[in-house]
User: Fold this.
Amino acid sequence: MWRARRSNLAVPGSNPKMLEKAKGLAADQVFLDLEDSVAPIAKPDARKNIVAALNEGGYGNKIRTVRVNDWTTSWTYRDVVEVVENAGHNLDCIMLPKVQNVGQVHALDLLLTQIERTMGFEVGRIGIEAQIENASGLNNVNDIAAASPRIETIIFGPADFMASINMKSLVVGEQPPGYTEGDAYHYILMRILMAARANNKAAIDGPYLQIRDPDGYRRVSERSAALGFDGKWVLHPDQLAIANEVFSPRQDDYDHAELILDAYDYYTSADGGARGAVMLGDEMIDEASRKMALVISSKGRAAGMQRTQTFEPPQG
Assistant:
């Protein structure tokens, strides 16, 4: 079962106060950033801040990720070496931005393997999160998702992506002016989702920069959640509760999914008559129903939800 990534909280590595505050926030994942939120001259100190924060602990059960700079910069190798060598035992994933091809994933995988062997860490434990932020990355997303066993998530980076295709908008994640029918992001989101699912990876939606517009954040979150995305970035603590709610099943749906699984397990057993298609109330359930229910139940369990109904086998 995947680890829950409903809310993915961005934390600038150059801000020790925010690194500390993030430890007490209700995010499923924190990613400590060395890329866009950190000025070039602040990056060396940001690495040290992140190492200190990880080694001090206090992030609880959160997934601990560090976003390094992309391979076209001069900072990437130092980001990876300094953070992983000094805090690799307290780190779950490295997020690689602006991934354009499998070679960039392979390079990070190889560097991580060398560091793990040198430092005596478990080889392969640290995962990779690949961020798709331009047309080349989207064209290669299927290969990127399959590029390494370390890949855990495929992430949509809307701001850089919008710039890369010359989209006529300055509001990240909103429909561009003049686009009045449908959803301008549907194709992009579905390409990422299909690549993730075909390779059993999580799919994560990127940020919504209008942090004082909770209704807008909810609207775009519900869009990607409806498609099947597992979570979304959070840029401000006020967005956390929305992400955790939207990317969790509704309680009724979770309860119903668990009932389907229990009922199907019973009815396909010898005691239940070894049947493949049966009625659960007014609903016929079969193997396809079980698969659909498993998706909802898995997300609910990962989110720590508790069921409020139980299945009772028929008597007599």
In short: The longest helix spans residues 102-119. The CA atoms of residues 72 and 273 lie 61 Å apart. The chain has a mean pLDDT of 93. The longest strand covers residues 7-12.
